[in-house]
Amino acid sequence: MDWSVKSAKYLDGYRLAVTFADGKSGVVDLEPRLRRLPLFRRLLDVNVFQAFRINPDFGVICWGDDLDIAPESLYEEATGGHTAAKVAEAPAKYTAKRKR
Question: How far is the C-alpha of 70 from the C-alpha of 4, rounded, in Å?
C-alpha cells in the first residue's frame, strides 16, 4: 500500500485536507500532536504551520528540511484505514519438512 501524500490543503487551525497516492483522502487535525510532542511545538504558530510543503521524493508533509510527519499516521487518521500489514500464515507446502 502506498501512503504517500499527493496533495494537501490548509483548512483552518491545524487541520489539513490530505489526498494519498491510493486516491483516498480525508481531514487530519494535527493540533493534539503539536501540543503533545515538543518537537512539533514551533508549528503552533499558525503562520509557520501553514508553510508546509510536500516532499515529492518521500511523499511526506514537511516544514523546512528538518521536520515532517509520517504519512502512514496521517493516512490512518484521515481515512480510518489501518497501515499495518497483516501477514498470513505460510501455506503448509512451505512449512512442511522436506523428505530427503
Answer: 9
The answer to whether 72 and 83 have CB atoms below 8 angstroms apart is: yes
pTM, 2 dp: 0.79
Query: Which domains, and CATH codes, for the chain?
Result: 5-79 (3.30.2020.10)
In this predicted structure, what is the pLDDT of residue 96? 55
Per-residue pLDDT, 3: 85
Residues ≥6 apart with Cβ < 8 Å to 87:
none
